[in-house]
């Protein structure tokens, strides 16, 4: 059989039974999806329910417990055995439920950040999930796209594809849809093919899907680059470490408890069970799992605030962000462009009319003018419409831009001069082009007969660049030499526009007798004739201003890095409160003259980088990182990928960002809005502080219990808690408040304090002290209650234990409220402001009442129905840890 690359386009199209212009029909797509399966590389390895259960039970400590149950059964304590098994089961199911919740949250995130493709179906181009592609689909490719399936190219224009993910070759290769090969060629040389997961770095093209899913070249490679690997974040590593230390300590204590018990001649089985339950209870082996759950819940909360985090790790890093570097256009501004000024033929023309509706007038000093009256105005408007890749669409709520808003504004401008983009493009179709890229900052298109019997190239782009590449200027109906005096004049107008925060573009053209053979920047974007400038407003986003103020409070620096002109950028930065004086702004090219060392000093003061190219971005991030900053950086183009990778948090735009940028980024903004980065940082901080809260709570619970049991044994008192009571306490009641602490709203000053040092351990000195104090308080309170029980009910050890058990649980439920903030008292944050905690503690408390008052539970848990007198005593002790916790906050400096 012939390979795809050795077939002609016609062969391919007929073999796959598809049409280049109209694509497949939706029906056909459905049929083929049935036949070929979805275009997905990820294995759907959903764990079965059974394997989840097995996973829960394969935990070492749980196995010990099961062993203990079997021993109990063997020595005739079958009731205990059954209860232990039941508690272990409840615990396992809770674990599975929580795991499921986290998994679901993560799955939803994966879906949101999974790629789309532009595909022609039923005659229209639409954006569809890449997973829905089938052989025969016609896919449209633009710079920045990730190839969604294996394609045989059928159209290509300057198409370059980077195939590193497949061939390891990082230099982009040129593609050409017109060749086909008779002989066998290697993967890297198949110019007429585009392979799944490689990236378009330049140009555009079209291809027919020839392979999907596992039936692709990348699918054949067994070691797939899984974008969602199981990762362990530094925090989880720390907690694992902590867990180990605690685990070993606990085991030593348990052995000691058991040993001392034997010396004191206590019953062997009872001591054995207590020691084991204590170990199971006190070893925080579930901690990393809860962290994952809380991170996942937090990620979901971020999605609601328009930020999709792709990695758990990023949630942690976000919270310690110290610098946010942001694009200007669209992120800090609204990206709703309107041309308000035109400069051509030596005159400044005002343009009226707002939005994208092509209705408005041209005025000079207040007097309406006709397009024909001004030298090359007509040509300028034609370039606006011809050197343009966007489209305007009239919808029920006004005109909308499909494509780049800058270009949309230019279509509107042309429309105001009665030039319709569609018709002029029909009249003078594009025969060649040099597409836009943010390194060159310009684009050129070639058209026939705009000047009769000639080919003209129209160029538009950044003024400083275009002006330097022009040698002539069209003025007063003549073509003049574009000398330094004239250039200065034009640059002055550019500066006037820019200072008004206008985004300025320049226009130029060049004529040829015939279409040149080899088209390139060096030969075709030089020696041009200058036509004019346009200035467009792009209003700042109002929310961005608030977000920047918030960053200031939070000790986070904000930096604007833009491709736009320095004065424009500074004007907007000033409006947003990011910069005060023009010395804080710098041109990208100035970076070329300084060393990395010097740059490290420079980045400390500069707030605005203008005319920046993607390599500059990389240098800026590197310098910031070298200074110890935790840097978030936005980017949307193909060339931004390196900078995004280098940043601690790469941020990509969900709407305007390219696939390549989204793929590299850790954070995707669904609304392209700067304010959403700040929300994500805020959530990151909240999540981190919540993790601290429940670590604090759980650890002090555990240590408090150990303290209670250990001290009682040392004091030669009877064992204060039975094995099943300990298990119930830890595996059932404590987990609800702990999880509820994971969804706290965050301290009121969460965004008024400087970022956390990323190297700071989770257990700071303050926290260790707090844990110690709380565990002592819990232990002592329960011990006191136990002693009260022992003296009041000298006849019944079960009753004394019930008192200890109940007071311990009550104390922990109460002090969960105190754990809601490490610094602020409940009077400041409000007692019942975390409703999850209210329900969680209430639920735990009702379970406790069940154990105490339901008759058949009593013999199982060795409890009895408490009376008023008992409760009065219990409450007296149970409030101690809460009160101590609250008072200790008064000594913490805010
Ligand atoms: N479609 C276009 N055609 C021609 N020139 C363009 C086009 N879009 C932008 N430019 C020019 O290229 C420059 C760089 O564009 P780029 O997209 O890199 O950054 P930007 O959009 O100006 O700002 P930011 O980096 O903040 O998004 C622009 O300032 C403008 O002068
Ligand atoms: Ca941009």
Automatic annotation (TrEMBL):
> TM spans, by residue?
53-75, 81-97, 245-265, 271-297, 694-715, 763-788, 829-854, 874-892
Q: Which InterPro entries does the protein's record reference?
A: ATPase_P-typ_cation-transptr_C, ATPase_P-typ_cation-transptr_N, ATPase_P-typ_cyto_dom_N, ATPase_P-typ_P_site, ATPase_P-typ_TM_dom_sf, ATPase_P-typ_transduc_dom_A_sf, ATPase_P-type_domA, Cation_transp_ATPase_P-type
In its UniProt record, which GO terms are filed under biological process?
export from cell
Q: Which reaction does it catalyse?
A: Ca(2+)(in) + ATP + H2O = Ca(2+)(out) + ADP + phosphate + H(+)
**Pfam families in UniProt:** Cation_ATPase (PF13246), Cation_ATPase_C (PF00689), Cation_ATPase_N (PF00690), E1-E2_ATPase (PF00122)
Domain (Cation-transporting P-type ATPase N-terminal): residue spans on this chain: 3-77
Tell me what topology the record assigns in the membrane.
Multi-pass membrane protein
Q: What subcellular locations does the record give?
A: Cell membrane
- Where it mainly occurs, coarsely classed, is membrane
Quote one Gene Ontology molecular function term: P-type calcium transporter activity
Q: Which GO terms of the cellular component aspect does the record hold?
A: plasma membrane
The record's comment on protein family reads: Belongs to the cation transport ATPase (P-type) (TC 3.A.3) family. Type IIA subfamily.
What is this protein's record name?
P-type Ca(2+) transporter
Tell me what organism the protein belongs to: Tissierella praeacuta DSM 18095
